Amino acid sequence: MAVTPPAQRIWWKEPVERVELVWTALAFLWGVAMFATMIIWHIVGQQNLANEAYRIQPERFMERTEAFVEKYKVGEQGDTGVPVVRPPAGSDVYMLGRLWEWWPVLELEKGQSYRLHLSSVDWQHGFSLQPVNINIQVHPGYEHVLTITPDQAGEYGIVCNEFCGIGHHTMAGKIIVVDRNTPKRGQ
Amino acid sequence: MTTIEAAGRAVAARNVEFRTCPFTGLKVDLAAQRLIYANAVAAVIFLAVGGLFGFLVALTRWPAVHLLPAEWFYLVLTGHGANVLLFWIIFFEIAVLYFASAVLLNSRLAAPKFAWLGFILMVVGAVMTNVAVFQGDSTVMFTSYPPMKAAWHFYLGLILFAVGALVGCAIFFATLVIAKDEGTYQGSIPLVTFGALTAAIIAVFTIAAGAIILVPTFLWSVGLISHIDPLMYKVVWWAMGHSSQQINVSAHVAIWYAIAAIVIGAQPLSEKVSRTAFFLYILFLQLASAHHLLVEPGISSEWKIFNTSYAMYLAVLGSMIHGLTVPGAIEAAQRRNGFTKGAFEWLRKAPWGNPAFSGMFLSLVMFGFIGGISGVVLGTEQINILMHNTIYVPGHFHGTVVAGTTLAFMAVTYLVVPLIFQRQIVFPGLAKIQPYLFGIGAAGISLFMMGAGTLGVPRRHWDLTLAEAPIPYEFSAGAFLMMGLNGLFATLAALGGIIYVVVVVASVFFGKKVDSTKPVWQFPVTSTAAANVGKYGSHGTVKLPGTIILVAVFFVAFMLYYYVNWKYLSAVWPLR
Question: CA distances (Å), B460 to each of A161, B57, B111, B340, in order?
Fold first, then answer.
């Protein structure tokens, strides 16, 4: 019994019933299959998070984002004062998280790829793009560079899903994806 | 080993008082009994506090109720995590360790004075952390990710608690040495003790990881260290945070085997297979820190894939083996007891009215189907991006820690109270329905949080309407519905939790002394019928058609859910 010492002293030599062997083999092969699936997806899949990342001083990231906003700003989001930025297709775009906003609002073109630079200038934040449901952790001091290709037009919300203090539930931002009928090639 | 032995011998001189258990004939060291009592009572107190916090959290996230103001919500959520995930579970596990060593091995407990020291450290630490949380300047969540900083005594409390738990593990190891030395049992340790040993070994390196990260973070909080790298913190912190959940898995699997043995006289199908499965936990569970780092910058895909899969899912393999051998052992025992009709007579005629059995079986099924499958899917490198930090994550771990571990611990309490505390369970009618209420509630909160997570609902978030956000976003009606249903099922779970606490406390303090001639439930562990069942070992065991059907259903569900999520992933914006 499981609460008493094994009845056969040399328990490691006892024979094993076939059902246990078959199940163990099946479970092992399933593990190998799941392991292989992750690797295969890196080859054939379209959704693999970039490994490109750099250490960066938060101030430096803020400067770069501000320079980016200044260059491509086309307006402001309602009366919030948050700039709306329309970068050229295929370019490097910046978004920073801070207490408590995602800054700036990006206007991207459907079907075009952008190199998105993500970082935080204070605490950790959670970049949660809705309703697509893409969720990426954002760290201060680390600049994450990923290439995204919005494939549907519309307005997308970005909420914060890493707890960042008392204003956490007010932290949100936006990405607008527009559909231009004559898509330009990236520069 | 030598220091442990020395510690053991240093106290060999103490006067050991034993009583003899009227049910099992085992000698019970009264010092061990008192320590089991103290740790179990502390566990239940922290469960009551932490469970109440959890209920308040669920009521606040129920959009129609939205109970607490934001500041209180985040504070209570921090307290909920620490009290149930850490304090309730680890106090109970220390009690399990003392039971699985001193009691099951018929031995005296090593160094009870040190064990009391460990207990006091744990109590002081747990209270200190709670004080820090309630002073209001440590609302950092259980994970306390820097650069967000808590008060110094938040970290110090956790450190003291961990040191106390480590003392408990050392007492357990020393007791194993003493029992072997003094020949209190024949041959190898029982399977349940082997499982407890697995839990204790994992606990040692879990607590070591905790020390490696919490000590510098504590020094940072008092100003002696200027900077804690947030990514490094997460890598090491989760070597404690996730691995401590693997202590739970080992402990509750050991408890499944124990309950199956005590209540229906089940024997392991094969000692070799079950022990190998525990051994896989020791070898591979520590890699799981990666589960929390799959969408972080600065970590390579190769590292993520190897670690998140426990090196090709070898720890998952261990759990899948237990998923066959635990119900298999029960089926084999029931068939020997005469329930041989069809594939499932053994299950239909199982003792469903005994809360120890019903709680154990619900825990087994829900841990596998809800917590286990969702955990593997959530921990897949690329799929994680669909769920990271959404409320899917708490959905998953309420399936493991609440429906799995907590329910198993509750179930075994119904055996501990009569066997160790020697009290009859009062309100047996309530006790009978308790595992169902709590289990269905826990299953509901797990599933509905997971459902809400797939709709993007963030975890640890006060306001789903984002009403105060300058740039609002509107979640779908389905998301609100899911959070409402979560609140309803949390109410059910809370009811089950309250009944558990009331029944246990009332039984311990006011229950009738157990009369060995008229036990509330039969314990076949003592009956001669159970002693004579079948030959030991799985070779030549009766066939197990019911269990084969159960694991086949599980396997198909697992595969379908896994690949459905790859399908979902393929539909989101391409990224590279």
Answer: 7, 9, 42, 49
Query: How far off is chain B from A71, nearest CA to CA, in Å?
Result: 23
Check if A38 contacts B (Cβ < 8 Å).
yes
Q: Is B449 left (phi over 0), alpha (psi -120 to 50) or beta?
A: alpha
CA angle B464, B465, B469 (to 5 degrees): 105
Q: Which secondary-structure segment (H or E) carries A98?
A: strand A92-98
Helix (H, G, I), strand (E, B) or coil at B4: helix
* Nearest neighbour of A131 by CB, restricted to B231, B476, B530: B476
Q: How many helices (H) and strands (E) does chain A have?
A: 2, 12
> Domain B26-524+538-570 carries which CATH code?
1.20.210.10
Q: Is the dihedral of CA B72, B490, B555, B534 positive or negative?
A: positive
For each of chain A's 187 residues, which pLDDT tens digit applies? 788 888 888 888 888 888 999 999 999 999 999 999 999 999 999 999 999 999 999 999 999 999 999 999 999 999 999 999 999 999 999 999 999 999 999 999 999 999 999 999 999 999 999 999 999 999 999 999 999 999 999 999 999 999 999 999 999 999 999 998 655 554 4
Q: A133 vs B185: CB contact, 8 Å cut-off?
A: no
The type of residue at B155 is Y
Residue B293 tokens read as 């780092």
Q: What would the DSSP string read from start to end of B213-253?
A: HHHHHHHHHTTSS----HHHHHHHHHHHHTHHHHHHHHHHH
Q: Per residue in B432-471, pLDDT tens?
A: 999 999 999 999 999 999 999 999 999 999 999 999 999 9
Quickly count: other Cβ atoms within 10 Å of residue B38's Cβ.
19
Print the SS3 string covering A16-82: CCHHHHHHHHHHHHHHHHHHHHHHHHHHHCCECCCCCEEECCHHHHHHHHHHHHHHHEEEECCCCCC
Rounded CA-CA distance A129/A157 in Å is 6
CA dist., res. B206 & res. B200, Å (int): 10
Angle between helices B89-98 and B152-181 (to 10 degrees): 10
Q: How far apart are CA B59 and CA B179, in angstroms?
A: 49
Phi, psi of B145 (to 5 degrees): -70, 125
Q: Treating both helix axes as pointing N-terminal to C-terminal, what angle do B89-98 and B407-419 enclose, rounded to 10 degrees?
A: 40
Two structure tokens written together for B202: 């994992």
The secondary structure element, H or E, covering residue B177 is: helix B152-181
Are the C-beta atoms of residues A149 and A108 closer than 8 Å to each other?
A: no
In chain A, residues with a C-beta closer than 8 Å to the C-beta of B376 are 34
Distance CA A89, CA A184 (A): 7
Distance (Å) from the alpha carbon of B554 to chain A's nearest alpha carbon: 11
In what side-by-side order are the strands of the sheet with A125-130? A73-76, A83-85, A105-109, A172-178, A154-160, A125-130, A134-138
Which helix or strand (DSSP H or E) is residue A85 part of?
strand A83-85
Contacts of B250 in chain A (CB under 8 A): none
Question: In 3D, which of B505, B502, B389, B486 has the Cα closest to residue B441?
Answer: B486
CB atoms within 10 A of CB B65: 13
Contact B413, B504 (CB under 8 A): yes
**DSSP H helical segments within B1-29, as ranges?**
2-10
Name the DSSP class of B384.
G
Rounded Cα gap, residues B546 and B558, in angstroms: 18
- DSSP class of residue A186 equals P
Distance of CA B73 to the CA centre of its chain: 25
Tokens representing residue A133 in the block? 């449901």
Q: How far is CA B106 from the centre of its chain?
A: 26
